[in-house]
Amino acid sequence: MIIKNRENNSYLGTFVSAEKSDTDKVAEIIRTVTLMNKQNAWGYNKNGTPIKKRICKRGRKAITKMVAPRGYFTPGSKGPVTYDSFGNIMGGINNAAEFDVYLYDRSTYYYV
Q1: Which of 36, 45, 65, 72 would you label with 107, given CA atoms 20 to 30 Å apart?
Q2: For residues 58 and 52, what is the distance between their CA atoms, to the nearest angstrom?
Q3: 32: part of which helix (H) or strand (E)?
């Protein structure tokens, strides 16, 4: 696990996908957040609904560059690229040599 200077309070760390210890740590974090969500351990909102959290993994450092496909509103890439026009890593999280892990509030809206 690598701790980088991120200007984000939700940043937990950067993990290397090739190291088994890092993937085990991420799996443990996911299990912990799931368990805390089930037990309503984060507390409650003002309207009485429980606060829930979610884990977000963002890929960094693509292993292989890929050609971005053409979308309806977006042009395709002229050659192999690391990220698409929306900032997502090409090839998904499986193509990432490293990935950042973030802990966000889960937006659940209840219409009463």
Answers
A1: 72
A2: 20
A3: helix 20-38
